[in-house]
Design brief:
The protein is mostly helical and 177 residues long. It is 86% helix and 0% strand.
C-alpha cells in the first residue's frame, strides 16, 4: 500500500498533478461513487417508508416489525451519511478546505456503505421471511450479509494487504541493491 506521501509523489510524477488537482480528482471520483449508491439507498428508503401502509403489513409479527424498524433506521442513517458530503461541501464552499472535505466525504461514504449493507440485509430478511420459513429466511439473509462483507470489506482489505506486502518487498529490494 502506498503511504500518503508516496501517493502524492506518485500522482505528481505519473499524472503531473498538483496536490489541489489530486484533491479535486479524488472528490470528483467520490461524488460519482456516491451518486450510484445514493439512488439505491433512496429507493430502498422509499420502499420502506411505504411498506407499513400496505395491507399485508398488518400480518407482520413483532419480530418482523423489529426488523422493519431497524432496517428503516439503518436506511435513514445511510442516507444521512451518504448525503453529508454534499451538505458539508455547501457549508464549506469557497473556504479552501478541500483536504478536509475529501477525508470527511471518504469517511462518511465508508460508514454509509456499512449502514447500506445492514439495511439491504434487513430488507431481504423482511421480504424473504414473509414468503419462506424463518430458518430459510435467516440462512438466505446470512448469505446476503456475507456477500456484502466479502465484496465490500474482505476483498478490498485483502488487496490492500497484498499491495502493502508488494510495496515492502520493493522497498527491501531497493535497499539491498
Amino acid at each position: 500500500m502506498l503511504l500518503h506521501d508516496d501517493d502524492i509523489t506518485w500522482n505528481h510524477s505519473q499524472r503531473g498533478e498538483t496536490e489541489l488537482q489530486r484533491l479535486d480528482r479524488n472528490l470528483n471520483e467520490l461524488v460519482s461513487e456516491l451518486r450510484v449508491i445514493q439512488t439505491g439507498v433512496q429507493v430502498l428508503f422509499a420502499f420502506l417508508l411505504a411498506l407499513p401502509f400496505t395491507n399485508g403489513f398488518a400480518r407482520v409479527g413483532s419480530m418482523g416489525r423489529y426488523v422493519f424498524v431497524v432496517t428503516l433506521l439503518c436506511a435513514a442513517v445511510a442516507c444521512a451519511l451518504l448525503t453529508a458530503p454534499a451538505a458539508c461541501h455547501r457549508l464549506l464552499f469557497r473556504r479552501r478546505d478541500k483536504h478536509y472535505l475529501v477525508r470527511f466525504a471518504n469517511r462518511m461514504a465508508l460508514a454509509g456503505l456499512g449502514f447500506v449493507a445492514v439495511a439491504m440485509s434487513g430488507a431481504v430478511l423482511l421480504v424473504v421471511s414473509a414468503i419462506l420459513s424463518p430458518v430459510t429466511a435467516a440462512a438466505l439473509t446470512g448469505g446476503i450479509a456475507a456477500t456484502f462483507v466479502v465484496l465490500w470489506l474482505v476483498v478490498p482489505l485483502r488487496r490492500r494487504r497484498d499491495l502493502r506486502v508488494q510495496n515492502n518487498v520493493a522497498h527491501l529490494r531497493r535497499a539491498t541493491d
